[in-house]
Design a protein that fits this description.
The complex is a heterodimer of chains A (112) and B (111). Chain A is an all-beta fold and 112 residues long. Chain A contains no helices and 11 strands. By secondary structure, chain B is an all-beta fold. The chains are: A mainly beta (112), B mainly beta (111).
């Protein structure tokens, strides 16, 4: 069966520090991978998606970047965090548009 | 970017009441509409994936309908129970493979 792992679960980082959130998928190959963010009081915002190794598309210009070094690994990064980067980050995967997406457990990021 | 909207933003109902909420999406280039349930401290989980106009899907006390021509979907919960308390999200893909979520409807069922 397929599983998705996301870590860490919570993170408190000072402004200006770097960030690295990791997501890995098991039990499937060539998944579509996504990073979403839920800011306080708002819905899920699509940040990045990837349809293959090294293929990253960004939805919103921001202080973040994403990489997919391996087929089932998706990394969200920042060189210097801003206060506005605080939020709940979710990684997800799916195969095609008419099948459900599966989500990781999420990372609660607080930038102080 | 796809504009997916949900209403109401939040809802409080008494245990045993039935309720429904709405998801609206662009009707042009429709491909699919997803409903997810997101409980506190858990990951969102899929309820329904709907692709055909007029589709109606049911899972226990929860059902959903789809109107692709006018661009809306309804989610119904019959006889709400406290364990139904969650945020219900809908999402639609664009012509690529990117899914866009609504802001969700937060349901609280009062015992």
């Amino acid at each position: 069966s397929q599983t998705i792992h996301q870590w860490p679960a919570t993170l408190v980082q000072p402004v200006g520090s770097p960030l690295s959130l990791e997501c890995t998928v098991e039990g499937t190959s060539n998944p579509n991978l996504y990073w979403y963010r839920q800011a306080a009081g708002r819905g899920l915002q699509l940040l990045f998606y990837s349809v293959g190794i090294g293929q990253i598309s960004s939805e919103v210009p921001q202080n973040l970047s994403a990489s997919r070094p391996q087929d089932r690994q998706f990394i969200l990064s920042s060189k210097k965090l801003l206060l506005s980067d605080s939020g709940f980050y979710l990684c997800a995967w799916d195969r095609v548009r008419d099948t459900e997406a599966f989500f990781g457990q999420g990372t609660r990021l607080t930038v102080v | 970017i796809l504009n997916v909207e949900q209403s109401p933003q939040s809802l409080h109902v008494q245990e045993g009441d039935s309720t429904n909420f709405t998801c609206s999406f662009p009707s042009s280039n429709f491909y699919a509409l997803h409903w997810y349930r997101w409980e506190t401290a858990k990951s969102p989980e899929a309820l329904f994936v709907m692709t055909l106009n007029g589709d109606e899907k049911k899972k226990g006390r929860i059902s959903a309908t789809l109107n692709t021509k006018e661009g809306y979907s309804y989610l119904y919960i019959k006889g709400s129970q406290p364990e139904d308390s969650a945020t219900y999200l809908c999402a639609a893909p664009n012509t690529g493979n990117q899914f866009y979520f609504g802001t969700g409807t937060s349901l609280t069922v009062i015992p």
